[in-house]
């Protein structure tokens, strides 16, 4: 019987831990550091920070952990997998070098260019003056991206030159590497792939909602809600994504000596010119994972073990229903979220930035929980989630009221973002 350690403390890690616990092979799931909202689901919290590699390795050794699964991007970018492998411990995640596909937008763009993977054109700048001169003349909208990890918040879509100037000025206050990308209009979706060397297994498609407010207004966030699968992303489009993106990405990594075990998250966009890549992530997406993993009907722990052995994973999931989740966040998110705001207890919810006693949780970060439901179609799933939210005291927490709306439009509008 197996013991699993999940590194991370958010809603994604809550979902991974529950899915691991559903495996008949798994007896114990630890989450480091986890959060007190996980305790009701028999997940054992370990008070070790996700960046304390020595502490995590010592814990994994002492507890004879069979598999460590890395949730968030920060420890991956800091080399946690290299550290675990050096300690001869089984770990699912990419090396620090491969994680640069997420942690460095420049690395990712250059990799895509080298390997013929479709993505937006871009220019790279190391000083503000040159960026401003280019931006003044370049067509709008412009996508301004700070190189490096930014929890989904390092991207500005500037629709006028004043916005572009402000975004560039702010960006160069924190970094000396900024990209200005062409804007791609179309329909965004997430396609996650579990990878084990040359073997891989697709997960169901999902669509995230990155903007804070309804109708995709307000600042970018880590993600305010998601649904899965995405009706507009047909099996033909999934095949196109495999052909144009997933196969050449894995082949390119192999050619460059970078084959890995872990997650490849394709942030895709369906445009008039076909599927293009908005971004790669090298870990499960949050919140998407929280409504994808409950759909898995096979033994998830076994699928990961198969991939670690570079064998084809047995991965199946339900195909009859749509799953939808709405994120609740503390007021002030994504800027400075208020701490200590009451967070309700809802059976089946996943918790993230919370502290306190399990039945008296309060906010300790931005996104605090995700409430989800499933139903025969997207409209039913959406109705069920919002009905749940009407019945509980959500107080001052903020959430979008239109998660899933884009998926209910039958026609994909290639002239609008997402
Ligand atoms: N949902 C987007 C992300 O995980 O980066």
Précis, in short:
By secondary structure, this protein is of the alpha+beta class. It has helices spanning about 10-20, 55-60, 75, 80-85, 95-105, 105-115, 130-135, 160-175, 235-255, 290, 300-310, 380-390; strands at about 1-10, 25-35, 45, 65-70, 90, 120-125, 140-145, 155-160, 180, 185-195, 200, 205-210, 210-215, 215-220, 225-230, 260-270, 275-280, 320-330, 340-345, 350, 355, 360-365, 365-375.
Structural Rg:
20 Å
Number of strands: 23
The low-pLDDT segments are none
Number of helices: 12
List all distinct small molecules, including ions and cofactors, that are bound in this structure: glycine
Task: Name the shape in a single word.
Answer: globular
Rounded mean pLDDT is: 95
Can you tell me the CATH architecture of the domain at 2-100? Answer: 3-Layer(aba) Sandwich
Structural account:
Among the domains are: 2-100, Rossmann fold (3-Layer(aba) Sandwich), CATH 3.40.50; 121-182, ATP-grasp fold, A domain (Dna Ligase, domain 1), CATH 3.30.1490. The protein is 30% helix and 28% strand. The strands form six sheets. The chain has a five-stranded parallel sheet, sandwiched between helices. The protein has a five-stranded antiparallel sheet with strand order 12-15-18-23-20. The chain is of the alpha+beta class. Bound molecules: glycine (GLY).
